[in-house]
Description:
Layout: H1 15-23, H2 30-62, H3 79-99, E1 103-104, H4 107-115, E2 123-125, E3 131-150, E4 153-171, H5 174-179, E5 194-203, E6 215-217, H6 220-257, H7 259-265, H8 269-273, H9 275-316, E7 319-322, H10 324-351, E8 356-357, H11 358-373, H12 382-390, E9 392-393, H13 399-404, E10 408-409, E11 411-413, E12 418-421, H14 424-436
Antiparallel strand pairs: 1-3, 2-6, 3-4, 4-5, 5-7, 8-12, 9-10, 11-12
Helix pairs in contact: 1-10, 2-3, 2-10, 2-14, 3-10, 6-7, 6-9, 10-12
Amino acid sequence: MASEADREAFIPYRRADLVELCLEDGQLSAEASQTFRDFCFLLAAYYHFKFQSYLEGLKDNYAPFNPDAATRTRGELSPNQRAKKADNLVEDFKTILERANYLPIPLANLQKALEESSIVKLNTKVDFADFDQIVCHYQGSFQQTIQTRKFIRKVRKKISVFKRVVLLIKFKGKTHFANQGEEVDELKFTPGKTYLYFYKNVPRHDLELLFPNLKISMTWKDRIFLLVPAIGSAIPILLKVLPKLLIIIGAILFFTVGRPGLDAVGAEEDQVRNIMPILAATSSLVLLLGGFAYKQYSKYKSKQIKFHKNVTDTLFFKNLANNASVFQALVDAAEEEECKEIILVYYHLLTTKSALTSAELDRRIEDWMDRKFDAKINFDINGPINNLEEIRGKVAKDDEEQALKPEVSLLRRDASGNCHVLPLDHAKTLIDYIWDNVFEYT
């Protein structure tokens, strides 16, 4: 078996496909297979309803910090209320990420990404002091071989890529940026607001590109490539303007120190006494030097635009969602993951011929996924077992019988720690009972 470090928690199949993969084992009859599908459908519907409340909670706590808000607020929150909502938002967001099988990326790793060589060849800087909160998680990773340039040679190297990356950042208020000398109205973000980003296939060393306060500059190699041609272009221009420059200097010296100034620069008195050659020399000098400066500035700006385009192209095609829409994507992913885990636990306990403890069940499911998926997955057995124990209801089909029977759980553990689940018919009836009583108010 693979070590835990080699495994990921994400199950790489849709819930509907996972149900069919279970049935492909042939452990259930045709009739039982359809009942199993019905049970999984009801289970998914129940969890969809359950996770809807999580989504509404996230949206409510995010409302005061949403930079894209299109609705009015009924009144301003007090500082304590805002702080509480901000804390609740981060706490609930981390919970959803964990339930969607995302893993945290520590701040130290984000800072290290700034120091390491990036695919996009730029000097990058992110001021982490601009943030009140940073939450960064990823789901899945893989190795990718890319082609890059090393001086004049093209070389191939392997890089680590995150399949999914989620970033939440809360900026500090306007006072912080004003104290740093920033023009608050010209910032690309709104101070005091919280931004969320959801990306796919992000190289580990390019994590800093996800931050909206990113500052980029040229590398030493780019500076050399810009400077050397500029020096080469400047030499003939200087040789060309030198006679005109001598006339201007001579005129200045003649009218300040007299004849000795002309001798020092080798200029003639007729040239400096006649205003027209001086004006012509001055105009020519301004045009030549101005044209050269504008040409070099245009090259610099073109290079800068190219840098920004590289960053934009890198992120544009990898962006999955921003701000409030990230919640919907993650809640859906968390709902899907929890359902898949519960289905796997229920199916394997349903079809096993011997009693299994949670540890034995964990190994059985991981071995099954190794064979079925050709993937090493670290299955978290505790979460789905606890969820199955929490799903309680009655298995009687009529109201009179229900009134007489106690509620039972989908899963129970005996004194030896072995896990047992209800038969399919009873499990389906229990879920149906829960649905019937979801909106029953007394």
